[in-house]
Amino acid sequence: MHTGQLMRLFGTSALLFMLAACGTSYPYQEKRIQVETLTESFTVPFAKSQSGLTPDGKSELQRLTKQIRGTAVKSVTVQANRASKLSMSRAGTIKSNLIRAGFPTQVFHIEPVRTVSQDVTVDVAYALAHAPENCPDWRSRATPNYSNQQFSNFRCTTMTNLARQVSDPEDLIHGNNSVSGDADRNQVAITNYKQNTVTAPIISVGGQ
């Protein structure tokens, strides 16, 4: 066999080997971000016969907005007595404060109650992204190899970064329909950016 034929044969074999390696499926490549919907309850206290927030009420709403990213919120349910002007005014105070913090206007609902409580219960349903299970994954060394394979923790790194950065975790499940924008929330985002008051969200990720 001539030298030219040997070189062509060697080149073809090397190409087939690399293509086979590219098509190989590895267990760590199957890792996926876990998205779940959680509901948490918050109790916002008010002063007697008053609809303005007390210091404790402001603190509770600040805790809520720091814990939950507004773009991930699916619903906000505020308990209120529709027959009571005071009760509805308190619900409106909570809503306006949460909208200023970046919560979308269309997610708010009133849960009718018969009494007028001094402490108002707020239930927030929101989506939360978790990094894949068993991350980080150090089954293979983070050193170069000659098998055209990614090291085991590469997928974990990518998925963890995405889980931390995604604005609405449910976008990882399905896309959004074409809907009109929320001017109130957009204004909050721009104002926070200009005033340098953007708060980093607290997002649970596995393996950290």
Description:
By secondary structure, the protein is α+β, with helices and mostly antiparallel strands. The protein has a domain at 35-130: OmpA-like domain (60s Ribosomal Protein L30, Chain: A). The chain is built from five helices and four strands, in the order αβαβαββαα. It has a four-stranded mixed sheet, covered by helices on one side. Strand 2 (73-80), helix 3 and strand 3 (108-112) form a beta-alpha-beta unit.
In short:
The chain is of the alpha+beta class and 208 residues long.
List keywords for this structure.
208 residues; 5 helices; four-stranded mixed sheet; 18% strand; disordered C terminus; 4 strands; alpha+beta; 60s Ribosomal Protein L30, Chain: A
Secondary-structure blueprint:
Layout: H1 3-23, E1 34-45, H2 55-67, E2 73-80, H3 85-100, E3 108-112, E4 119-130, H4 154-165, H5 183-195
Parallel strand pairs: 2-3
Antiparallel strand pairs: 1-4, 2-4
- The largest sheet has its strands arranged as 1-4-2-3
**String of helices and strands:** HEHEHEEHH
Helix/strand-derived category reads alpha+beta
Q: Compute the CA-based radius of gyration.
A: 26 Å
Overall 3D shape = elongated
Assign the CATH architecture of the domain at 35-130: 2-Layer Sandwich
